[in-house]
Structure prediction request, 449 residues.
Amino acid sequence: MRVKLLPLLLCMVLAPLPGHAEDLMDAYQQAIANDPVLSTADAARLVVAENVPQARSALLPQLSVGLGLEEIHGGGSNGSITGPNGNIVDTGASGNTRERDLSGTLSQPIINLAAIASLQAARATRDSGDQTYRAALQNLYVRVCTAYFNVLIAQDNLDVYRSYEDAYKQEFDQSTTRFKNGLAMASDVSQSQAYYLYIKSERITAQDALKDAQRGLEQITGKPTGTLKKLREDLPMQAPAPADSKAWVDAAMESNPVILAADYTVTADEHRVSAARAGHLPTLSATLQYGKFGSWSSAVPGAASYGPGVTTIGLTLSVPIFSGGLTQSQVRQAIAQRDEDQGTLESQRRQAARDANNYYNLVVDGIEQVDAARTSVEAGRKSLASMRAGYEIGTQNLTNVVFAIEQLANVQTEYIVVRHQFILNKLLLKQVAGSVDIHDLEDINRLLQ
Prediction:
């Protein structure tokens, strides 16, 4: 009696895996805690943010204090020496003289247009870093979902090939038995063996693909991949809302974090051009200085003397005249950098517009594609059942049965892919528009079972 291929295939492919299954939100929580790409983006954001207080410091008061202690050995022929600060100190014929110089300086920039422009550039760069991190977070949603679905697709494909391998193995065993009993030709045995070994090789390939997909998810989550919940059969096949590709393009221009980051970068470049040009302009600062000097000699007891404290208040005006062409070069460099980043911004805008249109069309066409693939699977199952029935009564040969099995395998694989890709394309469309968030993952997670 020949094995019934179709019921066996369907039972093995559709049988649920036992035990508790992880879902998409579990993978996301693990990724938030362990993904090195996101943590690197967060650290980069913090690095860039520190440019703001550093740039601001150039506009805030600067305070410094100094204490100088000096010892002078020996004296001149007249028993006196001139200290490092210019004071005449009587040391006698010989001996050591010590000096102490205490000073303090407080300065406050009043006019420094270059520093003001640099602060504005730093703020724009910080905003660009925030958008870059936001883009990395949104990309994490997509990467987690993609890696999760890759595991599901690889698992479903492996289940399909396992079922075919078992069916071909039983067919090969039966052909061998029938040949020994004189009920089949040697060519049937060779043919069934060739089909079995071929599908076994395909199963090994699918098994390796599953292992690699699991490692891909582990790379993001930092945790071993267990049994995952699968996408349920009855998916809501809804078109994008709004149902207008131009609306999605407009949303991308306004909210896509990659575009916003590039726009802030150009803004920062504009401020850097202003800062470079301000190198030609004068700066004005106010200063307050205090100093006190004291000295004493070991050769002249009681010669210690401490002068009165001296306070100096003033304004310092610095007018740049010529710096060897440095300022002009810095201006040209800042303008070139701005032009480069403007080109990058325009490229990203065009790419986002293309992606928005593309993913919109993929989602709209995906509804029909999934329906066509589902219908194709149903037709493939009926075709295989018909071939099997004909083979049982002798009107169909083994080659036709195998061809029907291969066709069913192909359409099943296609159906598995397009179902998952449809959900992923909707997520990618929202990512391009800059509107993807944790709620979208929660909605997808509700489609698992």
Observations:
- The longest strand covers residues 96-111.
- The longest helix spans residues 113-180.
- Confidence is low (pLDDT under 50) at residues 1-20.
